[in-house]
Amino acid sequence: MSERVRQDAVSSEIVSYIKRMISTGKWPLGSKIPSENMLRDRLNVSRTSLRSAIMQLSALNVLKAKQGVGTFVISELHEDAIFEGTGKNLAVKKEIVQILEFLKIVAPTAIFIEMKKFNKCFSGMDKQLAAAVENQRALAATNQAEFLVACFEFHTMIFNNIVNEFVKKTVTEGIARLQNAVSSLQPTISTQVILTLHNKLIQAIIEEDAKRASHVLKKLYTYLTAHDYLRSLA
Q1: Contacts of 222 (CB under 8 A, 6+ apart)
Q2: Beta strands in the chain (DSSP E)
Q3: Of 161, 185, 6, 24, which is closest to residue 92 (Cα–Cα)?
Q4: CA 123 to centroid of chain Cα atoms
Q5: pTM of this structure
Q6: Is 94 left (phi over 0), alpha (psi -120 to 50) or beta?
Q7: How far, in Å, are 128, 197, 210 from residue 151 at the CA level?
Q8: Are 117 and 212 in contact (CB under 8 A)?
Q9: Which pLDDT tens digits describe the chain residue by residue (234 residues)?
Q10: β partners of residue 73
Q11: What secondary structure letter does DSSP report for 164?
Q12: Cα distance between residue 92 and residue 90, in whole Å
């Protein structure tokens, strides 16, 4: 078992533990959960796995971290929370998982190779990319559906500028398929996590740091496939 797979499995176990503590009333709504150090000692897990689990539940608006204060339970659990009021289109949800897993492998590798081979392929795009993220930021506060559309446009914009036509077509078609699948659902995601990762991606592109750009993309798609509900559909 690879380190990445093992870490994901541990994070999933931590998420299940936290959900159990909330659902049984041991950590009621509004309560502060134990500190990171206490949970690491109690569960015998790494800081990375614990933070990944907390990030997943924060993205589903179950937990909220307050800097310098702690992490709190802010809503009750809903097993189908990642797809609000969507109906039960299991086939579409499975397709989303498959596309995300595909992009998690292909997109980071593609951007790394392209930036290494053609290190000026994104030259002059910094203002365009920054404007796109500012647009996402404005939409995040008002309309999540339009925010997601803007995110798809952002990723398409990036991959439309890579040189290898086959890779460009493969990745952009994957993004288009994902957008089409998601359009029939209403996924609940953390806009702040997405915006933070998009800003990091822009910075890596501007600095022509292929390794960091690849890492950020992988982290983004890992985040999007990390939810328990999505993983259970794979």
Answers
A1: 104
A2: 63-66, 70-73
A3: 185
A4: 26
A5: 0.60
A6: alpha
A7: 14, 11, 21
A8: no
A9: 455 445 556 777 888 899 889 888 899 999 999 999 999 999 999 888 888 888 777 766 788 888 889 999 987 665 444 444 444 456 777 778 788 888 888 999 999 988 888 767 788 888 899 999 999 999 988 887 888 899 999 999 999 988 888 888 999 999 999 888 887 666 666 788 889 999 999 999 988 899 999 999 988 888 777 654 454 444
A10: 63
A11: -
A12: 5
* Total residues belonging to the chain: 234
Tokens representing residue 20 in the block: 């159990």
Which residues touch 135 (CB under 8 Å, ≥6 apart)? Answer: 150
Both tokens of residue 116? 């290494």
Tokens standing for 61?
């608006």
CA distance 57 to 191: 14
Question: Which residue type, as a one-letter code, is found at position 168?
Answer: K
